[in-house]
Amino acid sequence: MLQVPIYLTVFFVLITFTTTALFWWVLKVSKNAEHQPKWSRLFLGGSFLWLGLQAFLSFQGTYYEHLNALPPCIAILGLIPPLMLIVTLFLRPSGKRFIDSLPLPSLTMLHVIRIPVELVLYGLFLAGTIPELMTFTGRNFDILAGLTAPLIVYIGWRPAFRRNLLIGWNVVSLALLLSIVIHALLAAPFPLQQLAFDQPNIAVLYFPFSWLPTYVVPVVLFCHLAALRKLY
Predict the structure, then answer these.
(1) Rounded CA separation 57/64 (Å)
(2) Is 207 left (phi over 0), alpha (psi -120 to 50) or beta?
């Protein structure tokens, strides 16, 4: 187990399940009322199965005991599957209809979850399990996306602002997300590590923080991509 304060562990578990609840809410208010129950059940069932699998792999030491593997185990077993699911949704006609039924305001509001995530990252830095560059006192400005999401929901649906503002906000926020993902990867103790050798990114290799790259980040990424598809 990772040696961090218990409140950080509990707080992040609550963040993860709050992310699940927020996306379930996005599905509940979707325009596709006929198929909404099916998508809701699939999402909830798939989410709990996936979170359970990631917890099992983390407790087994799959991610932190095979640091020399290339590609890293967490990439093969934790990142690639949700990314493949996202790609599949964007390629299949049924997936496109599902995406187009999701409401933009709800997709945007979900990004408030990035605020508590950033607070947890700062706590993990203080605990010595991630480098400072992964926090808002370093090179991670992802918290700005969470802070501005409610404002974008408030003013982004006025006709004079809607499309350009939403596209710009999603592009910038997506860039912030990709930036921290890249920094986290380069700071992890893998063969490709380039940053933070004195205090590497090890927290995401342990439960429950492995849920961040394998679940929370893919959900946030999907919301950005879905919003941009609808806007374009």
Answers:
(1) 10
(2) beta
- What contacts 24+ positions apart, CB below 8 Å, involve 156-163? 156/104, 156/108, 157/104, 157/105, 163/231
Give the integer Cα–Cα distance in Å for 102 and 219.
Answer: 14
Render pLDDT for 100-157 as a digit per residue (tens, 0 to 9): 989 999 999 999 999 999 999 999 999 999 999 999 999 999 999 999 999 998 886 6
Look-up of token digits 């995530």: 117
Q: Give the amino acid at 171.
A: V
What one-letter code names the amino acid at 18? Answer: T
Degrees to nearest 5, angle at CA 220 with 219 and 225: 95
Between CA 43 and CA 53 the distance in angstroms is 15
Note whether 134 and 180 are within 8 A (CB): yes
**pLDDT, tens only, 36-60:** 677 788 888 999 999 999 999 999 9
Query: pLDDT tens digit string along 167-213?
Result: 999 999 999 999 999 999 999 999 888 898 899 999 999 999 999 99
Residue closest to 15 by CA, chosen among 113, 122, 136, 150? 113
